[in-house]
Amino acid sequence: MRALVTNDDGIDSVGLAVLARAAQAAGLEVVVAAPAEQSSGASAAITAVRREGRTVVHRRELPELPDVPAYAVEAQPGHIVVAALSGWLDPAPEVVLSGINHGANVGRAVLHSGTVGAALTAGVRDARGLAVSLDVALHPTGERHWDAAAELFPRVLELLLDAPATTVLSLNVPDRPLVEQRELRHARLAKFGSVQARVDEVGDGALRLGEIEVGTRPEEGTDSALLAAGHPTLTALRSVAEDPDRLVPEWLASADRVRA
C-alpha cells in the first residue's frame, strides 16, 4: 500500500521524518511531500506559490531516509494532498499520514489545523487519512518524545486500514517517555483546543495575534482531558457534510412563502 506522508510543520521537521520511518517500518511504500515552509493553521487550504501557473516543487533527499522520494512543495498541506490524489503521484496514495505535529491537535480547534486538514482532505478524496500529533507544550523544555508516537503508530495504522475508505483518524500522544504513557483511549472533541488565539496588540492599520494555553479545566472524557492525564487519544473525524435536521419545517415553510 502506498502512503503519502505530509505535515504542516514543513519538510525539515523532525516529526515528519519520524512518521515516514514508522510508515516504512510498517511495510508501506512511502512518498514524502510536505510544505517547503511552516504552514501551521492552514486548515484544508489549497493555496500554493505558482510560477507560470504551476505549483513550485523541489526534489529533496531526507538524510535518514535516502531511499524515500521526498518533495518540498511551496503550498499548503491540503494542496499537496489534492495534487497527490489527483494525478501527481502515480499510482495515487491509498492513505495519507500527516504529522507528527509539534503540538496537540485537540478540541474543535482542529478545524484550523493544517495537520488535520491534510487528513480530512484525504477523506474527501476517498482515501484514508491519519493525523498524528505530539502534545508539546506551548513553551517546551527538555527533549521531545517522538518515539512514543512512533510506538503507537502500527496499532493505529492497523485500525485505519481495517476501516472503510474515507475514514479519518486523529491521534494525539502525550510528550512523555514510553514508560509513562497510559493506555490509548477513544476520545470526543473538547469544546476548545489546548491553545487559543489572543489579540496582543492593536495598532494603526495592524494587529498582533498571540497564543495562550487554555486555562479552564477540560470536560471529562474529552481529548484534552485524557491527554492531560497521560492517555494517548484517538478520535474519528467527520469532514464537511450537510445537516438537514437543522432546517425545521417552519423555516422551510416560511422560505417557500417568501419565494411565492
Low-confidence stretches: none
- Count, helices: 6
Biggest sheet features: 9 strands, mixed
Strand content: 25-35%
CATH fold category name = Stationary-phase Survival Protein Sure Homolog, Chain: A
What does the radius of gyration come to? 19 Å
CATH superfamily annotation:
Survival protein SurE-like phosphatase/nucleotidase
Order of helices and strands: EHEEEEEHEHEHEEEEHEH
Any chance you could write out the topology, listing elements then pairs?
Blueprint lengths: L1 E5 L7 H12 L3 E7 L14 E2 L2 E2 L1 E6 L2 E9 L3 H12 L6 E8 L11 H11 L3 E8 L10 H17 L5 E7 L10 E2 L8 E9 L2 E8 L9 H6 L4 E4 L12 H11 L1
Helix pairs in contact: 1-4, 2-3
Concise account of the structure shown:
This protein has 260 residues and is of the alpha/beta class.
Structural summary, described in words:
With 260 residues, the chain is an alpha/beta fold. It has one domain (2-259): Stationary-phase Survival Protein Sure Homolog, Chain: A (3-Layer(aba) Sandwich). It is 27% helix and 30% strand. It is built from 6 helices and 13 strands. A hairpin with a 2-residue loop joins strand 5 (57-62) and strand 6 (65-73). Helix 1 packs across helix 4 (146-162) and helix 2 packs parallel to helix 3 (114-124). The N and C termini lie far apart (55 Å).
List keywords for this structure.
260 residues; alpha/beta; Stationary-phase Survival Protein Sure Homolog, Chain: A; globular; nine-stranded mixed sheet
